[in-house]
Specification:
Radius of gyration: 25 Å
Strand content: 15-25%
Structural class: alpha/beta
Shape: globular
Length: 598
């Protein structure tokens, strides 16, 4: 008799994150959920991770409403699972104890059955309290060991023995769990290492524990990894459905079904019904922009291990900011960032820290600016890295961030931080005049200003869809525009009143005859007027000053967010704020005027 292989369908969380940067409207995919249930699938990943924040940030939707709708579409008996990042839960920043507890209770309230809980540093201290909260809320807890392959030339962790020690730490800590998952978010662990890791885990856990292996196809070895895991004793693997399968996503159910033919394993599915469900899903997603990198196997991923779920999220942000041309260089710079950062597993949020630091090293200069998340990681503020980071990088991070290295537990740090926790979230809601519900408290705590913007009804949609009403390029839509070639790059430009449409994106412009020789500083009868420009593309996160306020040299005027990093804009001189032509939530391009100081 063949061995039945359990599987969870990841298409509607990890698939969305990997293929579309997590930007998908709820109403569009629910028919595919219903079709998958009709096909006999009874275990889905239904939220958490980046799919929580992305609904507020990009879809102008409430993630709790999405979970409610998912439960209604799937029915009462299906296992709905979400992803949590240990003490970060579903935020990029780590949280305080009361928010971690609130996370578990709110997800249970909104229809979730199981929470998969991981820590990117494999620091067991980040899993103890978060895991207990999940169990106390009445949810199933799937505890995780995170995996990846180190770039060539690196050693010191991420071996089968390292992963077995991590699992032993979990067992020794007495963390309650219902299942154990080994999660390779970048899909880079070599199959032989997967086999040995799962083999050692099975020996340690015994025969009765549900043992799961998770990977992506980004490096092209997903099927080989899954076969190795099953042969070593895994009970369950994660699979996806087309169009959100392969490439940066998980292996397709139909692909794995085919790979298991003639073996001792079987998925136990009616493949004809699965094929019909995929046809429904493809129809649901036909109008969504699929980035070309989302479905590719990338042979260079082992050298710069970027998770499938983070890769397209980052490329979508680069597209938003007209910086996609920098992607290859940023990716190439990730290898050094990983090598010198202490070998945290490249999975959110650490993968984002790696990318942000590689972004800074590319655009600003090698190690000229330490990204806050990366710097705090090497200094110990998110837990203990698998090995100590490069001493030079630790020194730079301490100097630039004004922080000393720490070995305090993350919860101890966060519970003492007045800017974190339920009380701080309530204050944000009160100041914004927003109703104080537990859901709103959690949104404010994990999504900060962007969550408040959503709750105030001021959020904007950033979902990329194909506009089929527009004629093809070169037709009438191109009439009256210009093709501008600058330093080898091509820009399609149309002028419409005070707007310039550049490669499909709108910018405010002010065109006057003649050449203003005054540059950034324009004189007036009342003294010098200085224009402060955006140093890079991004979103205005918050304003610290208003028009008419006095400002001192070096004082913070506003904060921009670019690539999920906060960048303070400082005043270049003392004076009075004469004009602020931007507002919170505005998308600005590099060089746009942010403020004028008289």
């Amino acid at each position: 008799m063949k061995k039945r292989v359990d599987f969870m369908v990841t298409a509607f969380r990890d698939g969305f994150q990997s293929a579309f940067g997590a930007r998908v409207f709820t109403k569009d995919f629910l028919p595919a959920v219903e079709a998958a249930v009709e096909a006999g699938i009874n275990h889905f990943e239904a939220g958490g991770g980046a799919r929580f924040q992305s609904l507020f940030f990009y879809c102008n939707e409430n993630a709790f409403d999405m979970m409610d709708s998912f439960r209604e579409a799937a029915g009462p008996d299906v296992n709905l699972q979400t992803l949590a990042r240990g003490v970060n839960v579903v935020g990029l920043d780590s949280q305080s104890s009361d928010v971690i507890d609130l996370h578990a209770r709110m997800f249970r309230k909104h229809g979730i059955t199981t929470i998969r809980n991981f820590d990117a540093l494999n620091d067991v201290n980040n899993l103890i309290y978060s895991g207990q909260c999940i169990v106390d809320a009445g949810l199933k807890h799937e505890v995780v060991v995170t995996m990846m392959e180190l770039p060539p030339g690196c050693e010191g962790s991420h071996t089968p023995e390292f992963y077995t020690r991590s699992l032993k730490d979990i067992l020794d800590a007495g963390i309650p769990f219902d299942s154990v998952c080994f999660k390779d978010a970048s899909g880079t662990s070599v199959p032989s290492k997967v086999h040995e890791t799962i083999k050692q885990a099975r020996q340690l856990l015994g025969d009765d524990v549900q043992l799961v292996f998770h990977s992506h196809e980004t490096a092209g070895i997903g099927v080989a990894q899954y076969m190795a895991a099953l042969e070593a004793g895994a009970n369950q693997i994660d699979l996806s459905l087309a169009p959100c399968s392969g490439g940066t996503c998980q292996t397709d159910v139909m692909t794995m079904w085919h790979a298991l033919r003639g073996t001792d394993f079987d998925l136990g599915v009616d493949i004809g019904k699965i094929e019909k469900a995929e046809e429904v899903f493809k129809e649901c997603m036909k109008d969504y922009f699929m980035p070309p990198e989302a479905t590719k196997v990338e042979p260079l991923i082992p050298f710069s291990p970027m998770p499938g779920g983070a890769l397209t999220a980052n490329t979508q942000m680069l597209r938003d900011n007209n910086m996609m041309d920098k992607y290859v260089e940023i990716s190439a710079n990730m290898g050094e960032v990983v090598r010198r950062g202490g070998f945290g597993t490249s999975v959110t949020p650490v993968s984002q820290f790696y990318f942000q630091q590689a972004f800074n090293n590319t655009l600003i200069g090698p190690w000229e600016k330490i990204a806050e998340g990366y710097g705090k990681m090497v200094l110990g503020y998110f837990g203990k890295t698998p090995i100590p980071a490069d001493p030079e990088i630790i020194k730079l991070a301490a100097e630039q961030l004004g922080l000393e290295p720490t070995d305090k537990k993350v919860l101890e740090i966060n519970d003492a931080d007045p800017k974190k926790g339920v009380a701080a979230a309530k204050k944000m809601l009160h100041e914004a005049g927003i109703e104080e519900t537990e859901e709103n408290i959690f949104i404010a705590a994990t999504c900060k200003e962007k969550g408040i913007t959503y709750l105030k009804g001021e959020a904007k949609s950033g979902v990329r869809k194909i506009d089929r009403s527009k004629p093809a390029e070169g037709g009438e839509a191109a009439a009256g525009g210009y093709t501008v070639k600058l330093e080898g790059k091509t820009f399609k430009v149309k002028l419409e009143g005070d707007k310039a449409i550049v490669n499909g994106k709108s910018y405010s412009v002010d065109v006057t005859p003649g050449i203003d020789e005054g540059g950034a500083a324009a004189s007036s009868g009342d003294g010098e007027s200085i224009k402060v420009s955006a140093p890079l593309p991004g979103i205005i996160l918050r304003l610290s000053k208003e028009e008419g306020d006095t400002v001192s040299e070096g004082e913070v005027i506003m904060v921009m967010e670019s690539m999920k990093m906060e960048n303070e804009i400082h005043s270049p001189s003392s004076g009075v704020i004469a004009n602020i032509p931007v507002k919170q939530g505005d998308q600005v391009a590099a060089g746009d005027t942010l403020v004028e100081i008289q």
